[in-house]
Amino acid sequence: MIRHLLPLLVVATSISAAVAEERPVAASAKAIAPLKAGAALPDVSVHDAAGKSVKLSMYHAEGPVVIVFFRGSWCPICTQHFQDLIKVHPELVKLGAKMIAVSPDTVENTRGNIEKLKIPFLLLSDSDLAAAKAFGLAFQVDGETITKYKGFGIDVEKASGRNHHALPVPAVYIVDKSGKIAFAHSNPDYTKRLDIPSILTELKKIQ
């Protein structure tokens, strides 16, 4: 009996290791190894605007979820992308989908961004980059860029409340009801974001 159980124990151990795996922070945005379509949604925790710890796996049971990773509320291109997503949000709801945005902002900055932009969907704080690492999106920001940002009045340490000097590459994931990633898109060039029609097109494919 024990001999027959051994293969099952090995498989169970492998699955647990995969769930717990934390991908390293890449040396640059171009060096990331993001999760692809077909992978399982990582069982990772972040924080909502009230500071409560929540798991991303809580949200896909009733229908598909669109997860969008942002660099932070200080990023003007992210803010513009937010405006586009806010406009399309009613269409996503009609398709039975939820939208979740994730950024390295502190809980306080997350709450402030929700109020400032009147964001109608869930915005979560990933200041420790747990989700960004699990999705393979986290990368180290070099010292020269940190200095340049400070010259623009951008303080990434204050934004995240951490001194890790890391950010996520902007990305869009669509997760189906089973928890499988049905669509994945990321671009190391933070100025280029996935257009809204493409999100709707990919979402309709899994309805």
Compose a concise summary of this entry.
With 207 residues, the chain is of the alpha/beta class.
Can you tell me about this structure?
This protein is an alpha/beta fold and 207 residues long. The chain contains 7 helices and 9 strands; from the N terminus they run αβββαβαβαβααβββα. It has a single domain, classed as Glutaredoxin. It has a 5-stranded mixed beta sheet with strand order 5-4-3-8-9. A two-stranded antiparallel ribbon has the order 1-2. The chain has a two-stranded antiparallel sheet with strand order 6-7. The chain has helices spanning 2-20, 76-94, 107-117, 130-134, 143-151, 156-160, 196-205, and strands spanning 45-47, 53-55, 65-69, 98-103, 122-125, 138-140, 166-168, 171-175, 181-186. The protein starts with a helix and ends with a helix. Helices cover 38% and strands 18% of the residues. The longest helix is centred in the N-terminal third of the chain and has 19 residues, at 2-20.
Keywords:
7 helices; 207 residues; single chain; 18% strand; two-stranded antiparallel sheet; globular; 9 strands
CATH architecture: 3-Layer(aba) Sandwich
Distance between the termini: 44 Å
Q: Name the structural class.
A: alpha/beta
CATH superfamily: Glutaredoxin
User: How would you write the strand order of the largest sheet?
Assistant: 5-4-3-8-9
Low-pLDDT parts are 1-18
Share of helix among residues?
A: 25-40%
The largest sheet is: 5 strands, mixed
In terms of quaternary structure, what is this? Answer: single chain
Overall residue-averaged pLDDT value: 90
CATH topology: Glutaredoxin
Briefly, what CATH class?
A: Alpha Beta
Strand proportion: 15-25%
Number of separate helices: 7
Alpha carbon gyration radius? 18 Å
What is the general shape?
Answer: globular
- Topology pattern, helix = H, strand = E: HEEEHEHEHEHHEEEH
| Count of domain modules | 1
> How many runs of DSSP E, i.e. beta strands?
9
